[in-house]
Amino acid sequence: MVSYSSVGKKARLERIIDPRGTLIFAFDHWFEHGPSDFPEDRLNPRTILERVISAGVDAVMLTPGDAKLFADIWTGRTSLIVKITSKTNLRPPDERLLQSVIGTVEDAVRLGADAVAATIYWGSPMEDMMLRRWVAIREAAEAYGLPVLQLAYPRGPTISNRYAPEIVLYGVRAAVQVGADLIKTYYTGSKESFAKVVEAAAGVPVMMSGGPKRDKPLEFLRDLKAVRDAGAAGAVVGRNIFQAKDIEAMAKACKTVLVGEMSPEEAAEGLK
Predict the structure, then answer these.
(1) Beta bridge pairs of residue 26
(2) Where are the domains of the chain?
(3) What percent of the chain has pLDDT over 90?
(4) In terms of pTM, does the model score above 0.90?
(5) CA nearest 105: which of 133, 144, 151, 74?
(6) Beta pairing class for 85-86 and 79-83
(7) Does domain 4-269 bear CATH number 3.90.79.10?
(8) 167-181 pLDDT, tens per residue?
(9) Measured in whole angstroms, how far is the alpha carbon of residue 24 from the centre of its chain?
(10) Cβ neighbours of residue 110 under 8 Å, at least 6 residues apart?
(11) Which of 64, 215, 219, 255 is the most buried (most CB within 10 A)?
């Protein structure tokens, strides 16, 4: 049966997802990682966001406070995804496997967001608590027709390699089974192994997590090509864009590779 919320969710997902290849800019790093992620000339988030949005990303993922503070930059120019769980690295190490609630679905609706995002560390000792919060977020979002992006991150004391294909695949299947509308997860290292992750998602769009900055942009662009060829919906990228020598050029290069307009080698030429 078609409902108001199902129509709303479909419309919002279509505003985020470019069927040719989607690039979402993740910008929750100040909260999650602190100043160590930011060069001294990029301490002001406003200058970074302006450059990234000018490059034509499909959506930005922001914390509620930043979404409000920088509304003049993103409004009318790109889709907004509000991340409503997070954690800081100021916590004791043994408590960093838990994401806390930092906003609500209602905050995202009031801000005009097209989706909300929440993390589950699959395999964490606090997995049960995050799952309970996830269910509450998903139910609230459903009432508003708001898609939920799950950052499906296998991470815990029993996981020796969070990028292992079978571990990533497990996390993605778990995300599907608890009702994720869109999934961000780790890259497994090859087109062939990531294609199996995409297949296991059974039609739920899967996106690669950009991860730490790569030394050579060409290597990262090649990963994006492999992800595209694996059938993924695209990538959610932060540090490999905002730590790049030329932020706007790198964002454009990522997008052109994801939509298939350029090869990684061609796109990398524009970064020299």
Answers:
(1) 61
(2) 4-269
(3) 96
(4) yes
(5) 144
(6) unpaired
(7) no
(8) 999 999 999 999 999
(9) 6
(10) none
(11) 255
